[in-house]
Amino acid sequence: MRFLSKTVILLVALLSLSLVAAGCGDKGQDKSKGDAPKSGAKAKYSLATAGTGGTYYPMGGGVSSVVKEATGIEIAVETSGGSAENLRLIQSGETDMAWANASEIYWAWNGEEFFKGQNIKDFRVVTFSWNAIYHWAVHKDRGINSFADLKGKKVGIGPQGSGAAVFAETYLKAVGVWDKVQPAYLPPDDSATSFKDKKIGLFGYFSRVPMSALMDITSQTEIKLLDPTIEGEKVGFSQKYPFYTKTVIPKGSYKGQDQDVNKYGNPVYLVVSKKIPDQVVYDMLKAIYSENGQKRLLQTNKAAEDMTLKTAMNGVSEMGVPIHPGAVKFFKENGVNVPANLIEK
Q1: Mind listing the pLDDT tens digit for each residue in 223-272?
Q2: How is the chain split into domains, by residue range?
Q3: Tens digits of per-residue pLDDT, 262-282?
Q4: Nearest to 199 by CA among 152, 136, 143, 153
Q5: By three-state DSSP, how is residue 120 classified?
Q6: What is the CATH number of domain 133-265?
Q7: Residue 115 Ramachandran class (φ > 0 left, ψ -120 to 50 alpha, else beta)
């Protein structure tokens, strides 16, 4: 019995010591989401993208993979309604990072247009990523040659709250067609299916060229790409909305496309919550712009061709949103000029 009592006392003492050691080990460590990785710990973050049929989602997956491999930081890639919703998700704390278009970034920061009356100031710009082009595709055999011909038609323009839907509404209002069509707020894959089944008369969505959803359409259906600049420039569209840049889809980009087609583009940026630690953003950029990171992203999607150190600050001055301090540090160390007025004191 005396042996048993001593054994029990010894076990209790050892257990008490282990609990004290565990408590000391945790002291001062904040394991909450948003901390940078510490000695083996891996921070977990979320990145809001859009539907799976455009560029946002695959590029999100590419960034997640590159960053995790290089830093151990885990980034969960999430589908969403797209650019406009993404900025609201950061503001509400429902996501940490996102892709967003220049137009929505500008409007959200200034409380204008689709963000009128809303206070969305908790995001910071990290880097320019690529130039997205809004594709307007119609059935080749339906006699639609202009946007005026869409009168009475059901048109797929992207999910509610997406940068695609925002652009489509903005453009169609500008050319006097919005109140004459029936908008269908569909993600690209669902819109592509409805277009192939001829349930909608137009497929519209933002993406870099080529867009996977449109490639799927052209494998089964003959299309015609509409040129929005013809009617748009008559009403001064690019003058009123300078962040919607004029660009071109080169001939041969899609099956049956035998000539260049003018389009409007909208630059895409990586944005993050202002609460993300500087070191996390710095480490992410170091991974993304490393030789291996650039190679891996190019293997993921051709949009990565636009994502270089030389283009990192493209268009940021026009938007006027502060650059995240972690990004400022990284770019300064790598010889990239960061506009002084976008550096927070």
Answers
A1: 999 999 999 999 999 899 988 989 999 999 999 999 999 999 999 999 99
A2: 44-131+267-342, 133-265
A3: 999 999 999 999 999 999 999
A4: 153
A5: coil
A6: 3.40.190.10
A7: alpha
CB-CB contact of 71 with 287 (8 Å): yes
Q: Measuring CA to CA, how many Å separate 158 from each of 10, 15, 52, 217? A: 68, 59, 12, 16
pTM of the predicted model as reported, rounded to 2 decimal places = 0.77
The residue whose two tokens read 């408590």 is 23
Residue where the block lists tokens 């406009």: 84
What is the spatial distance between Cα 99 and Cα 116, in angstroms, rounded to a whole number?
21
Task: Give bridge partners of residue 269 from the DSSP assignment.
Answer: 100, 128
CATH topology of domain 44-131+267-342: D-Maltodextrin-Binding Protein; domain 2 (3.40.190)
Which neighbouring-strand residues pair with 264?
246
What is the phi/psi pair of residue 179, to 5°?
Answer: -80, 5
DSSP 3-state helix, strand, coil percentages of the chain (rounded to 5)?
Answer: 45, 20, 35
118: nearest Cα among 103, 128, 108: 108
